[in-house]
């Protein structure tokens, strides 16, 4: 008599089958293995994308800071004085930012500004790790750009001449307020054009129009209105990344340009901590540097939350501490 194993075929009603328990066990193991392989592949893809994004942000910031600072210094050399023309800086900043945003938007998002990155973090658009890595890349790019200035321009004062400073007749308070306002405008425009979602709202049933028949007839007689017909219908259309995202780099570039023109003779028109940090480190000139960090981050924070409130989705005022709240809830429910 032969011995049977769990994997031997048996005949039931003339049909060859295998024990059901063994088949289910094998399928379950295969499913677990496939899920683990899929998870590993997803994690690997995420790591690769993050590395590419950080590298893109490094290169993007390097090019941006180099172009802006080189334009400023080049004008000073040609004019043979040390008062940078705001219009030249505004045009150069606007044009180069449009080109760089179009080039790097699909790689890293083309932030090239720690204040913008900070705003995306506090509004829950990126996590803390990506925020820190982006800011490190942006700081490194600014330093690399400053070193390139030393290599490409004659003389040893090129970097020192492009260090961001408030003007001599501007108080610290005025510089702080100016930088905060400029950064607020920039971040709000970026969020509104690059992150906003499409939504159509029909308020037809919510709008009530009350009017007096005599007043309407008198107005029609005098020609101030052509019809007495009033239809209580109001539809609000908003745009999205699909319809206006392609124009976002242009809107952002124009904004950068006129902001430089506004703040250039007051706070230096920086509104970018990386722009302030790179030349300051290489030239070792730290005067007024804290202004560009405090004011710019504060303005970005306010702009991010303001745009989130006005955006056509449900705002989450606790988005900054939401991960902490979820962690505490999981601890209480025993999920950790």
Automatic annotation (TrEMBL):
Keywords: Membrane, Repeat, Transmembrane, Transmembrane helix, Transport
GO terms classed as biological process: one-carbon compound transport
Cross-referenced PROSITE patterns: MIP
Protein's recorded name: Aquaporin
SUPFAM superfamilies attached to this UniProt entry: Aquaporin-like
Stretch list, region Disordered: 1-23
Family indicated by similarity: Belongs to the MIP/aquaporin (TC 1.A.8) family.
Molecular function terms from GO: water channel activity
UniProt xrefs under InterPro entries: Aquaporin-like, Aquaporin_transptr, MIP, MIP_CS
Membrane-protein topology: Multi-pass membrane protein
Chain segments annotated as transmembrane: 49-75, 87-105, 131-152, 172-195, 247-270, 290-311
Entry annotated with the keyword Iron: no
Organism, as annotated: Acrasis kona
Keyword Transport: yes
Record localization: Endomembrane system
Entry superkingdom: Eukaryota
GO cellular component, one term: cytoplasm
